[in-house]
Amino acid sequence: MSLVSLGVVSVLFTVGTYLLLQRTLSRVIIGLGLISHGANLLIMLSAGAPGQPPVLPIEGSQPVADPLPQALVLTAIVITFGITAFLLALALRSYLLTGSDEVEDDIEDRRIARSRHDAEAASIEEDDMHEVAV
Amino acid sequence: MSWLLPAVVAVPILAAGFTILVGRRLLLQRVVAFSTVGFVLAAAIALLVQADAADPAVAQIGGWPAPIGITLIADRFAAIMLTVSAAMLVAVLVYAMAQLGRDALDWWFHAKYLILTAGVSLSIVTGDLFNLFVGFEVMLIASYVLLTVKSGSNEIRATMTYVVINLVASALFLVVVAFIYTTTGTLNFADLSVRIQEIDPGVRSALGVLMLVVFGIKAAIFPLFMWLPDSYPTAPTPVTAIFAGLLTKVGVFVIIRTQTLLFSQEGPSTLLLLIAGATMAVGVLGAIAQNDIKRILSFHIVSQIGYMIMGLGLLSIAGLAASILFITHQIVVKTGLFLVGGMVEEEHGTGALDKIGGVLHRSPVIALLFLPLALSLAGIPPFSGFVAKLALLQEGFALERWVIVGVSLAASLLTLFSMTKIWGGVFWGESTPAERRSAPAMTIATGAVVAMSLAVALFAGPITDLAARAAADLIDPSIYAGFVLGGN
User: Which of A92, B61, B219, B406 could form a disulfide with B70 if both were Cys (CB 3.0 to 4.6 A apart)?
Assistant: First the structure.
């Protein structure tokens, strides 16, 4: 049973990582959601074997499930939920401002790309001048 | 005294709620925010005095004994961190008060700032791994919202990178929590430090490296730093200043705590020293290529993190003590430098080096505030940076780690070069017209930070001794375990 869960965790992480590397914000957010689910499931797995509900009074002599990871996962889910909502708001704001869902390049990257573009344009101009002169 | 530990977390959160409830009554918001942060500072000092004089304050929440319940503890290292952080929180709040209303800081700034305070406090005083996660998240969520105060397209883009990177780090953090709970069955630091000795050494070092990656992202060490210079400079000055002063250092604090407590080893760690050297070099080289005050300073944050990791990498009492001293000095100096940079921006509307000049003649006070901080960052005697770097280098020499010593000296020299670049660009040269004067409260707040930096240099002797005592506690995990588990 835990092997199947472990498989699910690894699939969630794989798909999540793939989506995270996309340029579209909505996919990045979905990817993050999947990765967080994977992490949460992993915490559930750390509880070990399933057992009786850890609620008093305990009936019978069967082992009781470890309640701590359940508590941890609840906290983690709430935190992830909050941040995902914030990310969605950011993505919406970004969409309203730029009109597209794509992640923009870094300012410095853009500046460097522009300067290279300018340099290329200048060298092409020089070539043209050269041709005219010939 | 132990009631102070939950108080430094709970009081700021309650106060944050209160500032929202009172609505747009600015004066009331200010009074509440200031007195709350002031309370945290007073509590931190009280905790430091107790931790140094006697046993540290330990609080078991709900009265449950240590491995079961939640533990809060302020040992010497944590109390030093909390005191310095709280002092910066007070100074930056005063600075922000002057900017509020003039600039883009909105009405809910105080609430967010107080939540940030609570997150920082919890991350520092917590005694178990999952609470550390919660503390970090509280701190980060407040920082996400603070970064988007202006919500223009640049801020949104920068914040997006920041949030996504931190969320990935948080997911990895949860993975570490799951692995550690699976292998040891506990998350309490003190209990962990005992039980982690019993597990397979291979698994143990894998957990150690995974944890280093998680907190390395938060602390911006090489090669996980690229988000920092991109996102920090876009925020309003008080926000950038407090982020620069506190957030990454809390990351370093946790790296030091976990690596000494859970994954301690004999002798210097080559991996950590490699990371330290690369962080110093890449950070300082990045800074040299920049042309904006805040961007230059942001790269220096990364570079200086390297020195803190170097002290940890040496893994001796003197090395750790130097690290603690360096963190103390760095929190103060970095916050101060950003505040000065913000004053220049406030007066000229830009921080681009080639667009401003001659500040020395027009506002000599700003130049006077900048000079000691910049020289301190570069490590020129007699300022605080010199004391901290000297301690690091002495230990590097003693342990014969020549490469890291050489790299750190070269990085210091380049730091000095990049500080002279700011000096030449901003303070000398042809005078450019100023748009407006910065408010007196900004000068006072920045002046207080500069005074604190000078105090670190002036009282270097007692502070070094204190750092050495804190380091002695860190180097032997059984001392920490004794504090938490012993009494019960």
Answer: B61
Q: Is B184 helix (H, G, I), strand (E, B) or coil?
A: helix
Has residue A132 got a pLDDT over 60? Answer: no
Range of the structural domain that residue A69 is part of: 2-103
The CATH number of whichever domain residue A9 belongs to comes to 1.10.287.3510
Say if the Cβ atoms of B174 and A36 lie within 8 Å.
Answer: yes
Residue A128 is predicted with a pLDDT of: 62
With 60 as the cut, is the pLDDT of residue B232 above it? yes
The residue in chain B having the minimum alpha-carbon distance to the alpha carbon of residue A39 is: B175
Residues A95 and A129 in one domain: no
**Per-residue model confidence as pLDDT tens digits over B401-441:** 889 999 999 999 999 999 988 888 888 877 777 777 778 88
Considering the domain architecture, whether residues A33 and A61 belong to the same structural domain is answered as yes
Q: Which residues of A touch B144 (CB under 8 A)?
A: 83, 86
B174·A76 Cβ contact <8 A: yes
Rounded Cα–Cα distance for residues B336 and B244 (Å)? 10
Least confident residue range of A93-97, B178-182, B246-250: A93-97
How many folded domains does chain A comprise?
2
Q: Phi and psi dihedrals of B297, rounded to 5?
A: -65, -35
B1-10 as b/e: b if 16+ CB within 10 A? bbebbbbbbe
**Would you say residue A106 has pLDDT above 70?**
no
Instruction: Kindly state whether residues A50 and A93 are assigned to the same domain.
Output: yes
CA B453 vs CA B96, B253, B327, B345, B372: distances in Å: 20, 20, 12, 22, 8
Residues A40 and A22 in one domain: yes
ipTM: 0.84
